[in-house]
Amino acid sequence: MAGSGTAHLRDDALLRVENLVVEFGVKGTGQKVRAVSNISFDVADGETLGLVGESGCGKSTTGKAVMQLPPPTGGTVRFDGVDLTALKGEELRRMRPKLQMIFQDPISSLNPRRTISQIVAEPLKIWNRGDAAAQQAKVNEVLTAVGVDAEAAGVRRPHEFSGGQCQRISIARAVVTDPKLIICDEPVSALDVSVQAQVLNLLEDMKARYGLTMIFIAHDLAVVKNISDRVAVMYLGKMCEVGTPDQLFGECAHPYTRALISAIPHPDPERETTHEWRLEGDLPSPLDPPSGCRFRTRCPNAQEMCATVEPQMTEVGHAGSGHFVACHYPLVETAVTVG
Amino acid sequence: MSHDVLEPDDGVLDASTGGVLLEVDDLSVHFDTPRGVVRAVDGLSFRLRRGKTLGIVGESGSGKSVTSKAIMGLLPRSGRTQTGSIRYEGRELNGLDAAGYRELWGTEMSMVFQDPMTSLNPVMKIGAQITESLRLNLGMDRQTAKETAIGLLRAVRIPAPEKRFGEYPGQLSGGMRQRVVIAVALACGPKLLFADEPTTALDVTVQAQILDLLDDQQRERFMAMVLVTHDLGVVAGRADEIAVMYAGRIVEHATTRSLFTNLAMPYTEALLNSIPKLENPSHTRLDAIGGSPPNLVAPPPGCAFAPRCPYAQDRCREERPELTEVPGDPGHLVACFYPVNESSVAVRAGGGA
Q: Using the beta-carbon criterion (under 8 Å), do A192 and B281 form an inter-chain contact?
């Protein structure tokens, strides 16, 4: 699954990421880690793309590379027709209000010394959007939209709020510049299940209200299925499978997706746990990734070919299904391309 | 396994305690804070039999971790008031000092914490962290301790245990570190293991491995386990009994099967409903629990869940429900005046009109 290739990309997407590569130098060794190794994906306008995988698979790095934080080592990131990787300095800065991020830990992502209203107003101040009164009105509007009482909360500081409320405030700050694309990096993994449900519902509301497009990075598959229109599965810096949630969870084609799904604990004691697809061991080191398909060392279906040839993204199911997998021996038959 | 010394006792039920290993009765833990007295645990009672698993489920602040730390004697002394009784093999533990507890830690009871990154000493080799307690508690010599430790590493399925023995925690992944933490906890053959969110910091694939490992080791050693988690999915397949905690109290306690088939407490229902389900189509609206957990300094006078409960009546806001048995389901306890299932159907119909 070292899934490379761009067969799965659509023409009319808002965000089109092609052959993205992110490398980091390893201190003192001169070696380089390829955290993201030649992946491609796209997000259509108004769509939510779920990005899943184990820790260390490069999903957060991918999200940050889209934001040019830092700019990727290679590949292109076309957003709204503009290649972000070609932009420098002021040009890139001008694009930033259109792309926003929401992070995992809501408390540490808010400045503890500022009041809530200062935190949410800061992007507007930086961009000189309207006068003070207009800015305050906008701040009140977004705070109310995320379910925080603007009057009472505005003068308080982050430590006075619970994790769930801080995440609401982070969402308010992200939408205050009227962005087009929001990248949510594990936005609910630090929250309790009851609060998690509130924040997920809120994200859906915000998406509808402000016409947002989202990339939702998470390791919880049930959460990702709930919120996404399309889901991309990553493993060790590569793309394994892309499809709608129903395709992925109904008839997944990649053995790794299968293993991920079967590892989910279910709140139902009657359910048989199957060990057939249980993965052994850990993620291999990205410093020295396996040859060919990177998943082969943990894959129950691996054959000789997997060690030598890197699989490319190929459509499965019927032609035009939009369900792509990078595997030599997928669990679903590959589509027969007509003509 | 080779190390016979580590095998637990043969599991013959002790006649005097009827197989009950741990009995907690009316346990309360209060902390003095500048904001007032926090009632972290308030009147908690349960029993745990040898070799069984009790799952304690609740949100942050429900008192689930304080409960296990109180039983283990790991809470700070200052500012804490602890009342009630904790009987372990018939012996009272409440009020026991650190020296008294030291005889129990490791050999009788031990704990696996949530974060494998911080629960190991980063500047001490893995091997030394395991042999430390073997030599101290069981008086093993260096060589036996080393052999036993390598056996333990193998038992928790760490590849190349001889090599890992001489490595530092920083050289291992999170999942591997949690295996080491488990090896340390199991080293002296405890009869009771507390696992406090043992897999919350881990990936879902590794989580499944670690839970399987705990399962196997528990069965092999006939060890009782208290599995503390916020995830009902984690306990559903693993625990014999489940206690659901809310605001420092047990609000529902039943066998796992009974809890899931004959759920009685509206809070448990709300908790289950708020989890996204794989069976549901995308963009299904989640039933979030409105509001937030109560302030434990000044909890509401009646049922602590009443302000967030869809079925709450006037009585719930004035009077606190005690744990009582659900009619027709022996052993299934619930602290609710209007449990889900029977009466609440009528209440819901009436209240909705």
A: no
Angle made by CA atoms B264, B268, B270, in degrees to the nearest 5 = 115
pLDDT at residue number A63: 94
Residue A118 has pLDDT above 60, yes or no: yes
User: Do B129 and B82 share a structural domain?
Assistant: yes
Nearest residue to A16 via CA among A54, A44, A38: A44
CATH of domain A1-80+218-339: 3.40.50.300
Q: Which residue of B has its CA nearest to A161?
A: B292
Residue B169 in contact with residue B126, Cβ under 8 Å? Answer: yes
Selecting from B207, B260, B274 the residue whose C-beta is nearest the C-beta of A197 gives B274
Residue B255 belongs to some domain of the structure: no
Query: What span, in angstroms and rounded, lies between the C-alpha atoms of A231 and A222?
Result: 11
The partner residue sitting opposite B285, judged by closest CB among A201, A267, A281, is A201
For residue B63, is it within any domain? yes
The distance of A281 to chain B (nearest Cα, Å) reads 8
Residue B188 lies in a domain: yes
Q: Between chains, do B236 and A267 touch, taking CB under 8 Å as contact? A: yes
pLDDT in tens, B264-273: 999 999 999 9
**Whole-structure pTM value:** 0.85
Ranges of H-type helices in chain B: 64-72, 98-102, 126-138, 142-155, 161-165, 174-186, 204-221, 232-236, 256-261, 266-274, 314-318, 343-352
Nearest by CB to A263, from B205, B270, B276: name it.
B205
State which residues form the domain around B316. 262-277+301-352
The stretch A271-295 carries a mean pLDDT of: 80
Q: What's the mean per-residue pLDDT of chain A?
A: 89
Domains of chain A, by residue range, sit at 1-80+218-339
Residues B227, B345, single domain; the answer is no
Q: Is B285 close to A219, i.e. CB distance below 8 A?
A: no
B71 and B185 housed in the same domain = yes
CB contact under 8 A, A263 and B272: no
Angle of helix B174-186 relative to helix B204-221, nearest 10 degrees, comes to 10
Question: Are B260 and A269 inside 8 Å of each other by CB?
Answer: yes
ipTM of predicted assembly, 2 dp: 0.81
In B, which residues are within 8 Å of A275 by CB distance?
Answer: 212
Measured between CA atoms, the residue of chain A closest to residue B280 is A226
Across the A/B interface, how many CB contacts are shorter than 8 Å?
132
| B-chain residue closest to A260, CA distance | B205
- Residues B277-297: what's their mean pLDDT? 87
**Domain count along chain B:** 2
- CATH assignment at residue B228: 3.40.50.300
∠ at Cα A294 (A309, A277), nearest 5°? 115
